[in-house]
What we know:
Elements: H1 3-21, H2 26-34, H3 41-63, H4 71-87, H5 92-105, H6 109-134, H7 143-168, H8 170-184, H9 187-203, H10 210-235, H11 244-256, H12 269-280, H13 285-313, H14 319-331
Helix pairs in contact: 1-12, 2-13, 3-4, 3-6, 3-10, 3-13, 4-5, 4-13, 5-6, 5-14, 6-7, 6-9, 6-10, 6-11, 7-8, 8-9, 10-11, 11-12, 12-13
Amino acid sequence: xxxxxxxxxxxxxxxxxxxxxxxxxxxxxxxxxxxxxxxxxxxxxxxxxxxxxxxxxxxxxxxxxxxxxxxxxxxxxxxxxxxxxxxxxxxxxxxxxxxxxxxxxxxxxxxxxxxxxxxxxxxxxxxxxxxxxxxxxxxxxxxxxxxxxxxxxxxxxxxxxxxxxxxxxxxxxxxxxxxxxxxxxxxxxxxxxxxxxxxxxxxxxxxxxxxxxxxxxxxxxxxxxxxxxxxxxxxxxxxxxxxxxxxxxxxxxxxxxxxxxxxxxxxxxxxxxxxxxxxxxxxxxxxxxxxxxxxxxxxxxxxxxxxxxxxxxxxxxxxxxxxxxxxxxxxx
Length: 332
């Protein structure tokens, strides 16, 4: 893993945490944490792992054009990948997922990465939808912010349209993409970009049947609704009274913010976005901070511990993270 990526992410995390915590009455944050009824986090953890189970089923569906993988082994691979995302920067866990699947099941890394890209795009569609559904509940949101969200949503819809076009009309998409790339893109980048397009088209095979596309879309929505239920359970540990739609908005904003480079575990990006959007819903900033910190810990710790357990049981070592990156580079 390039060190500069790590340190840039760490600097961004520190900067965002500083901005989020600046001016806070930390004693009030501590008092909110002290008086929290933390028993509520346990049903939240259970709900989160149920969401991971749904995401595993979705991935198994996407992998079917290459190979049907036993669900239990695939679940372990997904959890190991989540752990990798939580302890390494730049979503290294996604590379580890593809590496472990090739090692155990022989699925090509390029194909796995194409399906993971599709997962991220489907997740992004749902997150944008959550934001648009919950945005009207925000108090005193500047008009410029509304315009920014609408513009970002329009650009995302345009990108998604291209994505589905590539997935559903592969031959035509490949021909047109090749013609555009060879005429517009500098020669040095053409081969890599064409390879990326071709691998994506191959990995999108599961989207070409309406029934399969519906199943993948439905499982994506279900997984994120279950994760929002986790937000709801953790909310009851505090003196918060947000609606489920409010929590959909928090979920969408906090997770979309993790696109920004950060240190391991999305420290800073997730927290600053969560604190900001909850405060804009009329919650005192100190309480919003306490809730967000506990929410982030509940998202991070259990799946990381379980992923470490599965990693040890698989005989994986930390050096395998480096091997995963090298394998992906070699597959390009």
